[in-house]
Amino acid sequence: MDKLYNPERDVFPEDERTGLDKDIIRRAFLDHLFFSQGKFPALATLNDYYLALAYTVRDRLLHRWISTAAAYTEQGARTVCYLSAEFLMGTHLGNNLVNLGILDDARAAVEDMGLDFKELLRQEEEPGLGNGGLGRLAACFLDSMATLQIPALGYGIRYEFGIFDQDIVDGWQVEKTDKWLRFGNPWEIQRPEWAVEIGYGGHTERYHDEQGHLRVRWVPDRVVKAVPYDTPILGYRTNTANTLRLWRAESPEAFDLGVFNRGDYYGAVDRKISSENITKVLYPNDEPLQGKVLRLEQQYFLVSASLQDMFRILDRQHISVEQFHEKFAAQMNDTHPALAVCELMRLLVDERHLPWERAWDITQKTFAYTNHTLLPEALEQWPLDLFSRTLPRHLEIVYEINDRFLDQVRVRYLGDPARVARLSLINETGERFVRMAHLACVGSHAINGVAALHTDLLKQTVLKDFHDLWPEKFSNKTNGVTPRRWIFFSNPRLTALITEAIGPAWMRDLERLADLAPMAEDGAFRERWRAVKRANKTDLVQFIGQHFGERLDPRSLFDVQVKRIHEYKRQHLNALHIVATYLRLKNDPTRDIVPRTYLFGGKAAPAYHKAKLIVKLINSIGAVINQDPDIRGRLKVFFLPNFHVSNGQRIYPAADLSEQISTAGKEASGTGNMKFTLNGALTIGTLDGANVEIRERVGADNFFLFGHTEAQIAGLRQAGYRPLDFYHGNEEIEAVIDLIGSGYFSRGDRKLFQPLIDDLLGQDPYFVLADFAQYMACQDQVDTAYRDAERWSRMAILNTAHAGFFSSDRSIREYQQEIWRVSSVPITLINPDEVKVTVMQ
Ligand code: 26V
């Protein structure tokens, strides 16, 4: 067959193997069903068809992937290594079809054969290898790096069990294990030939090498094998396919050999299982870790495997270790991979025999660190004894780094021992700990926060001493989200409407959404805008009806709070508003209110009892209100179980109101807030995280602002905040809290919610009562605005129009230019017919 090369898209559309033409896709699909899965249609399940389509798409990805790998290798391209303990990818099939530009053709090919395309997509298990925002950000960043044609590798952990599945039983959260690999994973390729060994424990020895130099050797007492599994990450309408490389722990072969010598077969099997435990399960990242040794082992596993892999790439491309930092820019996603700083030092000094100073220079030039939280209790520290037992050589390296660092500090701040103690990598205020954020700061040339306010507060609070020392290292990189998944794929109706109105340019440059702003004044356009939202709401209502048997009214205002359950995010403030509104209706049953559906979704860390009690509270309020005949369907509360990426894709497009109500100064950025805004929901929110920037861009008139500012909160705290004053000062809040305390929502059980009430009336650490009155008043303004459909649509259109800034493409461009200094590399597709076969030595 003649190859019709299409330079416009740089593809071979008619290529019989990986072409994008509909008929070719159909043939490839059947070929896979027959020859990859060995299934005949009469025996094929929906999952078989899903797999056939997945393999068909994967072939097209692999064509781009080998073309990309060839170009990077040939050019020795500078590469970003994004080190992250979490990648919350969501399902791959639909996203890959969007990025290949064949969503419609693939749908048509499948439907021509009489199959239900949506149902095939639903077969895919979501890899839940992350907790929430931090892991999802890493996934959006991979999409943007590939789209911007930036050579990049994502390095992470292939957890066998991702984030737990959440069931709601009698209103309580119940956790179930997430067996995402149950039916196999067509998107990954195992690369056993690139496995590396990871050491743990043991001791260190000093020796003299042939040249008489004093050297250190680490003799671990345990070795685990790390095996990489690669997933191609395709850019939007580009030929760039980067790699997500996830490591899985296995026992090394040496274990199996030892069995014969020692005759200890069952002991060997035990040890094998124990090695494999390292990548067994994802831990919550929002729960204090009480010295969990397995978590430290996981972190080291990720870091050591990834750095060894980077050395393998360096060696293969014949680049000197002295150029490590020229070849690689490594970004640490929070402190989970901060051990990379001492591991790179160990590899350079102990294994590659570089002098300390040279190695330190390379290390600092290689790493950059992103901080994702201001909560002081969230800053990771490892108890010294646990650290030294697990990583004895690394502790020596931490000490050496610290000694040299503190020498500098002492010279700089003569006679300020308090500052020296504050900056130290070792916390010696009580039990001794290694401070991971300090290790990350010292080992990096760049440190960033994830929203403007967050970065400012970082500089003033948790990292103040580092900012005093090295102000030039600090910068802000406001988060973003990928429009491919969060608009094009999840909201096709809105995508079509926008494209019809302003043309397709916005799809490659999201700031062009601004062209939509004048349309806010066009009545006919507003009507179509509302029709899109209505249709999206109806889809969600259908989905919830089908899966949970709950009937929601698409005409009501959809008021949505979906995110991890946490006291600082204040889902309970939202709950108080529900109860207050309920009381207003009970006291005045004919009162004219805007019918609302309160939608919640989110998981609580399994050991976070208060968060789990908040879940129970919401469900209990719902159970009463949803049944109350006085309410007559005007209020409805629904907690969607098991919130994850896929049902997020259904929720954001259907939301009217986005709840972003964290205590000011607590939410580093938020990214759900951006997904809502881009999908035309209005925000009710505090001046926290990226809300501040969202409001600046969409305009104060188009944003429902309430609550104390961070400075005001600090003021309240200083003055000795007394929540009881707010309780007694506001009849409505008193009635609300008393009703909850009376057992009204807990079948007369007055004790059930008492811990929450005690908290609110005692310390109220998240200033719920202080913000309650303003929140109520602001919700009234929401009602007023919603009653005026034209006004609401105008506001919604302007929200979308001015949210282009929150594309992760913009975030990544900033990282690229200001931190990584890496060039984009356009990729030309290899023509498989022109490849010469060679064997790698
Ligand atoms: C950690 C901990 C640990 C102990 C106690 C409570 C607690 C609470 C929160 C955390 C945060 C862990 C890091 C994290 O997930 N940060 C999130 O990162 C997102 C992406 O930058 C950002 O949008 C969220 O605002 C931020 O919470």
TrEMBL record:
One example of a Gene Ontology biological process annotation: glycogen catabolic process
Superkingdom of the organism of origin: Bacteria
Keywords of the record: Carbohydrate metabolism, Glycogen metabolism, Glycosyltransferase, Pyridoxal phosphate, Transferase
GO cellular component, one term: cytoplasm
Keyword Zinc: no
Cofactor: pyridoxal 5'-phosphate
InterPro entries: Glycg_phsphrylas, Glyco_trans_35, Pyridoxal_P_attach_site
Molecular function terms, GO-annotated: glycogen phosphorylase activity; pyridoxal phosphate binding
Positions carrying N6-(pyridoxal phosphate)lysine: 675
Reactions catalysed according to its record: [(1->4)-alpha-D-glucosyl](n) + phosphate = [(1->4)-alpha-D-glucosyl](n-1) + alpha-D-glucose 1-phosphate
UniProt-listed CDD domains: GT35_Glycogen_Phosphorylase (cd04300)
Enzyme Commission number(s): 2.4.1.1
Gene3D superfamilies in the cross-refs: Glycogen Phosphorylase B
Alphabetical list of NCBIfam families matching this protein: P_ylase (TIGR02093)
Family according to the record: Belongs to the glycogen phosphorylase family.
Function recorded in the entry: Phosphorylase is an important allosteric enzyme in carbohydrate metabolism. Enzymes from different sources differ in their regulatory mechanisms and in their natural substrates. However, all known phosphorylases share catalytic and structural properties. Allosteric enzyme that catalyzes the rate-limiting step in glycogen catabolism, the phosphorolytic cleavage of glycogen to produce glucose-1-phosphate, and plays a central role in maintaining cellular and organismal glucose homeostasis.
Name of the protein: Alpha-1,4 glucan phosphorylase
